[in-house]
Design a protein that fits this description.
Layout lengths: L7 H25 L3 H24 L1 H16 L9 H145 L2 E4 L11 E4 L6 H10 L12 H26 L22 E6 L5 E6 L5 E6 L4 E7 L2 E8 L6 E6 L5 E6 L3 E6 L7 E4 L5 E6 L5 E6 L3 E6 L4 E7 L4 E6 L3 E6 L3 E6 L5 E6 L4 E6 L5 E6 L3 E6 L4 E6 L13 E3 L5 E5 L5 E5 L5 E5 L7 E6 L6 E5 L3 E5 L1
Antiparallel strand pairs: 1-2, 3-30, 4-5, 5-6, 6-7, 8-9, 9-10, 10-11, 12-13, 13-14, 14-15, 16-17, 17-18, 18-19, 20-21, 21-22, 22-23, 24-25, 25-26, 26-27, 28-29, 29-30
Helix pairs in contact: 2-3, 2-4, 4-6
Length: about 625
């Protein structure tokens, strides 16, 4: 329980607080009046002097005159002859009185002004004190915030130091893993080389054994044939004619070959009831069996020498004569942004489109219309090219995410990601052999892939980045930004041919017979290259035709009679390959640059895509 003085403690505290506030106020206000108080005191002194002087004047003129005369005499020490008259002194006194009254009025006015100014200053002082208090509170708040932020900065620095240490550890770990990966890749290459060498040695040994076995079989067969040719066959005849005796004879039959035996048997028309099937028939049947076995052995050996043959896709049937498109049958806003690629499937009824929205849409061509079939998702970047495999079961797309991705038709998610490039992948195409593909990139490489293992089987380094690739039986053709087309043998390590063209190469299209190549370049021309002599056979130009981008695609018709390309103004241009003349130009639905075109394998319709998200089906 609190003592008797406890209740008075709060009252004492607030009283002391009030006293402190009053003292503070007294000090602040006194500081404001420090200049005014001396002036006011001087005014009061002057007023007192004036009051005394006025009293002296009111006593009487004589006293004043005498007082003034006396004071003047005392002060100046002048003679009595020089003292002024009373009238002059009265006038002078009156003037001095009026001057003093004027001075008093001015001083009173100044006092009023000073009081007003003092009130204004006091109000400003109170306002500034309020602002000062608010600013002090704000400063205290900011100091608290600064302290908290300083703590956060220290925490962030600690976290940054920890993350930096973790990053250094991860980088060291990554470098270690990369070194291990390089070591494993080198070991894998060594193992692969040793495996190939071992297989080559085993194949050579197997071939040598087969040749030895074949020579032994041939020697054995020749010996058996020689034995058979020297063997004597006894033939007995019996006759039912009376008087004729039973004759016994011996006949030597040469059985060097089945034809000679049959010829001799047909020429000698012996009349005998039967022929003894002793040695001759057995020997002939055995010879036939030996020859058949030898032929079968040669056939089996011919398959075994080359090893397992490459699995190839079945050839795609192509129309004999393609039909020129004349009008647009269907127009769709297919994607959310620019469309870069389009490709037909081998059955000519399925078409794929890919764009910058990282989606691939599959469409069915039904009754002259495009009907949505499926959407393939999971691409890591904008789609730059799309390709179907010759069986139509898989879709391969190149992306800006430094990789190519593989889908199975019917599955929405990506099956494999072919990563290994260091820049945008601009082209990805299937090869004619199964489970093989080729990609080109802006990192100045062309890569061959084993799709069964998602493994890069070969990397080709080029001096310029690649815009498009096509594949033949044993050849890879790449178009580059340095205005050159390069040819690579898939069985050799080096470039076999280089053809320079005017302008950056934007696309390549290989004819079905693999004898002609169509290229599109930024000099606004299309060129046909004869692959039998590796020279430019024809150059196509047209008024108004301009290449809209570095990835504008041009294609052959399936019968190689026409060349088709889209222009920057949305028009399609078709040239006759045989005559080299512009066959037709199609305008209408496209209002932006056409990026890619595709001609179906049946030759009946064409699909084009542009930069304004439109897909157009032409018939």
């Amino acid at each position: 329980m609190a003592g008797p003085g406890a209740p008075c403690a709060p009252a004492a505290r607030w009283k002391r607080h009030i006293v402190r506030q009053l003292r503070q106020r007294d000090r602040t206000q006194k500081a404001l009046f420090l200049e005014l108080v001396p002036a006011y005191n001087s005014l009061l002194e002057k007023a007192e002097l004036l009051a005394k002087f006025s009293e002296k004047l009111q006593r009487g003129p004589n006293d004043v005159i005498s007082t003034i005369h006396q004071s003047s005499w005392e002060e100046s020490g002048l003679d009595s002859d020089q003292v002024s008259s009373p009238a002059t002194l009265r006038v002078k006194w009156q003037e001095e009185k009026e001057g003093l009254q004027l001075v008093c009025g001015e001083m009173a006015y100044q006092v009023v002004e000073k009081n007003a100014a003092l009130g204004t200053l006091q109000s400003e002082l109170e306002e500034r004190q309020g602002r000062l208090a608010a600013l002090e509170a704000r400063v205290a708040q900011l100091q608290e915030t600064r302290r908290q932020q300083a703590l956060q900065v220290e925490e962030r620095r600690a976290q940054n130091a920890a993350q930096h240490a973790a990053y250094e550890a991860l980088r060291a770990h990554a470098e270690h893993r990369e070194a291990e990966l390089r070591r494993l890749q080198e070991e894998a290459r060594d193992l692969l080389e040793r495996l190939v060498q071992r297989k080559a040695r085993a194949a050579a040994e197997r071939n040598l054994r087969n040749e030895r076995r074949e020579r032994a079989n041939q020697a054995r067969v020749s010996q058996e044939l020689k034995k058979v040719a020297k063997r004597t066959v006894s033939i007995s005849e019996s006759s039912n004619t009376p008087g004729d005796g039973i004759r016994e004879g011996k006949e030597t039959v040469a059985v060097g070959s089945e034809s000679a035996f049959l010829e001799s048997e047909g020429c000698e028309k012996w009349k005998r009831p039967f022929r003894s099937a002793s040695a001759t028939s057995l020997t002939l049947s055995r010879c036939v069996d030996v020859v058949k076995g030898l032929l079968d052995f040669k056939k089996r050996r011919g398959h075994s020498i080359g090893g397992a043959p490459e699995q190839r896709y079945q050839s795609i049937p192509v129309c004999v004569a393609a039909r020129l498109p004349t009008h647009a049958r269907d127009v769709l806003d297919a994607h959310l942004s620019e469309i870069n690629a389009v490709c037909f499937g081998p059955n000519s009824s399925l078409v794929a489109t890919g764009g910058a929205d990282r989606l691939i849409h599959l469409w069915n061509v039904v009754g002259g219309r495009l009907k949505a079939n499926q959407t393939l998702e999971g691409a890591g970047g904008s789609i730059t090219s799309v390709d179907f495999d010759p069986s139509g079961a898989q879709v391969l797309a190149s992306t800006y995410n430094q990789a190519a991705q593989l889908w199975n038709v019917g599955e929405a998610q990506s099956k494999e990601t072919l990563s290994g490039h260091k820049d945008k992948v601009t082209a990805a195409k299937f090869k004619l052999t199964k489970h093989q593909a080729v990609t080109g990139s802006r990192d100045r490489t062309v890569k061959e892939w084993d799709l069964g293992r998602a493994y890069c089987s070969r990397t080709i380094n080029v001096v310029s980045y690649c815009n498009d690739v096509v594949c033949g039986d044993h050849i890879i053709i790449s178009g580059h930004n340095d205005q050159k087309i390069r040819f690579w043998d898939s069985r050799g390590p080096r470039c076999t041919q280089i053809i320079p063209v005017q302008g950056r190469v934007t696309s390549l299209s290989l004819s079905h017979d693999q004898l002609h190549l169509l290229s599109c370049s930024r000099d606004d021309t299309l060129k046909i290259i004869d692959l039998r002599v590796f020279n430019i056979r024809q150059v196509f130009r047209a008024d108004g035709f301009k290449c809209g981008s570095d990835w504008t695609k041009a294609v052959f018709s399936p019968d190689r009679s026409y060349a088709l390309a889209g222009s920057w103004d949305g028009a399609l241009y078709i040239w006759d390959v045989d005559t080299g003349k512009l066959e037709s130009s199609l305008r209408g639905p496209h209002c932006a640059a056409v990026n890619a075109v595709a001609w179906c394998f049946s030759g009946s319709h064409v699909v084009s895509v542009d930069q304004s998200r439109k897909v157009v089906l032409w018939h």
